[in-house]
Amino acid sequence: MMAAPRLTVTGLHAYYGKSHILHGVDLHIGEGEIVALLGRNGVGRSTLAKAILGMVKAEGSVRFRDTELLGKRTFEIAHLGLGYVPENRDIFPTLTVRQNLMLGEKRNRSQATPRWSMDDMFSLFPRLRERENTVAGVLSGGEQQMLTLCRTLMGDPDLVLIDEPTEGLAPMIVAQVGDYLKVLKERGVSVLLIEQKLAIALDISQRVYVMGHGHIVFEGSPVDLKANAQIRKEWLEV
Fold this sequence. Notes:
This protein has ten helices and ten strands. It has a six-stranded mixed sheet, with helices on both faces.
């Protein structure tokens, strides 16, 4: 049985200035579901995440549970329970790891007991505990990615949009990111995973969308995509 939709995107168009990037995108993400969004660079995947979060001009409908998000400001959308991990690993370089994590906390959420604690973050990525009092600007790229992922969780989101979390990371850290995503699912957090690495996306997602030229060109299970050589060749393979 398909999980009840937590996020429903219908007929979404998005623009950068006069450039029309998204052309009527439809997708949905269920409660506690990991959905992978695949496609080549430049097809509109990151724009879709930014449109959902109110960061670019958009038309259509984006509903989070029963609330329409289009027209709301980004901080309002975040307070409803959406988290965002951008591709550029947006950390505070002059603050320590612990201070970065503390800044991620949202203290005005209605939930009395947050789903995540500082100790949870250090359990997910033990390297962050070792670097707890180190300023974030001197961390390696992999450590900064760990910190960005965990700082987003400290806001206790119900849905996280994650843009290219494994880009440029060593295989060992890629595996840790995969474990992190599985823990999110176990705790009921929904995930939209924008990813280039087909292997990790197919391993951890329940459903897959493929985007091409601002449209969704495929929707199905990882098994369906593995079986569809034509879609992979036309829209994914270099």
